[in-house]
Design a protein that fits this description.
The chain is 70% helix and 1% strand. It has 350 residues and is an all-alpha fold. It has one domain: Up-down Bundle (A middle domain of Talin 1). A two-stranded antiparallel ribbon has the order 1-2. The longest helix is centred in the first third of the chain and has 33 residues. The model has no long low-confidence stretch (mean pLDDT 86).
């Protein structure tokens, strides 16, 4: 796409973003419906499938970037996406109703566990960037394998925790909303209420196809735009591309908040953040290289930023701050400050 004019590239990027928005919404609804019908989340394999389905934009960007040797885009998307998707929770906090912040209304020990999984995987990604390539073997960085194993193990443990009452302890005036298994009521999906399983699967596959194609267009046009504007493709991927790929999570998360499913909105964000670094093993396989070795100083900053932002919310779920300022909890205000500082620090990174 480097031969296209800047205007055409911008138009392609915007159209692809719109497709991801609408296809992502359909994908989320069909995924929930299939989860309802087949109880996918009751098994580890089902959780893996649901995690993959919810991250199709990132998968498309990763695959396209790896095949085109745009390794900085892979790293920026999978690492930078953690920070910007965590920042999305600020939007949820702003729109939640009541006098208490979202971390108070939704915070449970289970969310703290989920945040710890994101932090642990983020630390493994940081080690993958910092540890010399010679510690890897074949075409995989050893930490790419550790991340996948940790993600699968974390999913298993969190799924076990969801069945234990002590992980849902909240104050009397909290409003966590429905649990995962409670969301699987058929009436939650009126659009598909009288539709056959084959119909829902067809919509799921069609939405997946549109999402994947749009993800490829985002990667190709975004990389070309970064080159055209003289911006690091990794930084562009960690910000603009990561934001676009987060659009489905924003839409479905806002819907969950408006329905009172406060905990689920945050849980879905953390679930996606834990999964994204697991895609490094896919990038390693497609590129026949250890993609972590192409990381730059900005990538290290984004990893640390994502870890810090996740920890802020994680501890907020335990501390449960009660006050809101300008409709935001103190934890969300800290998120904005830290993300702004992170972007500002990019001017000092060479």
């Amino acid at each position: 796409m480097t031969n296209f004019s800047t205007i055409y590239l911008i138009i392609i990027f915007i159209i692809a973003a719109i497709i991801i928005w609408f296809a992502g919404i359909s994908l989320a609804k069909t995924t929930d419906s299939l989860d309802t019908r087949f109880k996918l989340g009751d098994a580890l394999g089902g959780l893996v499938l649901l995690g993959i389905a919810g991250s199709l934009p990132e998968i498309a960007i990763t695959v396209s970037a790896a095949l085109n040797h745009h390794y900085s885009v892979v790293i920026g998307t999978l690492i930078g996406g953690i920070a910007i998707q965590t920042l999305v929770i600020v939007i949820f906090d702003f729109i939640v109703k009541g006098k208490r912040p979202l971390s108070y209304l939704a915070g449970t020990p289970l969310l703290f566990l989920e945040s710890l999984l994101v932090v642990f995987i983020g630390l493994l990604a940081l080690l993958g960037v910092l540890v010399p390539v010679k510690l890897g073997f074949i075409h995989f960085n050893i930490f790419s394998i550790f991340i996948v194993a940790s993600w699968l193990g974390g999913l298993y443990l969190i799924n076990k925790a969801r069945k234990m009452k002590r992980f849902f302890a909240v104050p009397a005036d909290a409003q966590p909303g429905r649990k995962h298994h409670e969301r699987r009521a058929v009436e939650n999906h009126p659009f598909f209420l009288k539709k056959s399983n084959l119909y829902v699967i067809g919509i799921f596959l069609l939405a997946s196809l549109f999402t994947l194609v749009a993800g490829v267009l985002i990667e190709r046009s975004g990389t070309a735009l970064a080159l055209r504007f003289g911006i690091s493709s990794g930084i562009f991927a960690a910000t603009a591309m990561a934001l676009v790929s987060s659009l489905p999570e924003i839409s479905t998360g806002v819907e969950s908040i408006l329905m009172g499913d406060n905990q689920l909105a945050i849980s879905d964000i953390f679930g996606g953040n834990a999964f994204m670094p697991a895609l490094f093993i896919v990038a390693d396989l497609l590129a026949h290289k250890q993609v972590f070795s192409f990381a730059e100083h900005a990538d290290v900053m984004f990893i640390i930023l994502g870890i810090v932002m996740t920890l802020i919310y994680g501890f907020a779920f335990l501390i449960k701050p009660k006050n809101r300022y300008f409709r935001l909890g103190g934890d969300s205000i800290l998120q904005i400050i830290f993300y702004a500082l992170g972007l500002w620090s990019l001017s000092f990174i060479h």
